[in-house]
Write a sequence for this structure.
């Protein structure tokens, strides 16, 4: 079948799909930071990060190794932040030169053992494990994204990390100028900000990520576009994003509405057709293979 014929080949299939119009900024399947966290909260965490840098310049704790330990924990936290920011901005970092380098460096860092009865080390170990779990989850989300453009989240957010679960009275010590208390509280405040951001990001993507709840409906599909019955009104040329689930794999495309009208006995729903404006050659070929297999299946000519 020629490429021209493939683009016009259409077939009705029942598949799950997710459809979302482009927003006023020309984006879809993407949320803006300001809709999740206030700019004031972001400025507060920038101040916390600046305070950490100042604390890490303390000569006494540089000499005794305290800065080295906490700077390493902060570096690990910064990797979590970098991964989260890339997802938040819809950026595909998988092929960036420093992506794997950062992951490899993180795997080499381990918490030092403590042979004493200090209450600080259980807190630091719990902090380390919490950040490590976030990094592992974000790497999984990025590695399993749809073409590095669509991110789905399937893990429930844990309860916020709390210093009080491990050590009492750090606030009062920090107010008295205790370096250790100030560093711990600044690190945890930074973690709390980003885990709150991560939790709200998951909530914003909840409907998209719940693939089992996507509608499985009749889609008239081809390599050049598709048509479905929708209650939502679309204007001609209105842009949209769509994800189809085919054989446990996802196909992503951007398209524009070319037709919408009431049709037959569709009640309140209207037949709405979209042409693909942006679809990868791999996804286009996947559609054709999927449709041809379904056509053979429907005709009873499935190869044995």
């Amino acid at each position: 079948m020629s490429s021209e014929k493939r683009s016009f080949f259409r077939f009705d299939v029942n598949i799950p799909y997710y459809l979302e119009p482009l927003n006023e900024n020309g984006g879809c399947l993407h949320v803006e930071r300001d809709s999740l966290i206030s700019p004031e909260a972001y400025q507060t965490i920038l101040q916390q990060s600046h305070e950490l840098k100042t604390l890490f310049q303390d000569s006494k704790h540089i000499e005794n190794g305290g800065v080295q330990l906490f700077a390493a924990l902060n570096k690990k936290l910064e990797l979590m932040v970098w991964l989260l920011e890339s997802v938040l901005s819809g950026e595909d970092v998988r092929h960036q030169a420093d992506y794997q380098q950062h992951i490899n460096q993180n795997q080499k860092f381990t918490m030092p053992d403590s042979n004493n009865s200090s209450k600080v080390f259980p807190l630091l170990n719990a902090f380390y494990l919490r950040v490590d779990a976030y990094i592992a989850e974000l790497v999984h989300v990025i590695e399993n994204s749809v073409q590095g453009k669509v991110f789905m989240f399937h893990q429930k957010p844990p309860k916020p990390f709390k210093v009080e679960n491990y050590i009492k009275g750090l606030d009062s010590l920090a107010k008295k100028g205790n370096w250790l208390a100030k560093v711990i509280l600044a690190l945890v405040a930074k973690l709390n900000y980003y885990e709150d951001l991560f939790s709200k990001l998951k909530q914003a993507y909840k409907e998209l990520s719940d693939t089992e709840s996507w509608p499985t409906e009749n889609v008239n599909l081809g390599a050049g576009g598709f048509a479905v019955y929708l209650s939502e009104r679309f204007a001609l040329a209105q842009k949209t994003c769509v994800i189809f689930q085919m054989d446990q794999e996802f196909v992503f495309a951007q398209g524009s509405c070319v037709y919408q009208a009431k049709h037959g006995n569709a009640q309140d729903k209207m037949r709405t057709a979209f042409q693909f404006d942006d679809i990868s050659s791999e996804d286009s070929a996947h559609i054709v293979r999927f449709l041809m297999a379904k056509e053979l299946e429907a005709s009873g000519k499935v190869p044995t």
About this structure: Confidence is low (pLDDT under 50) at residues 1-7.
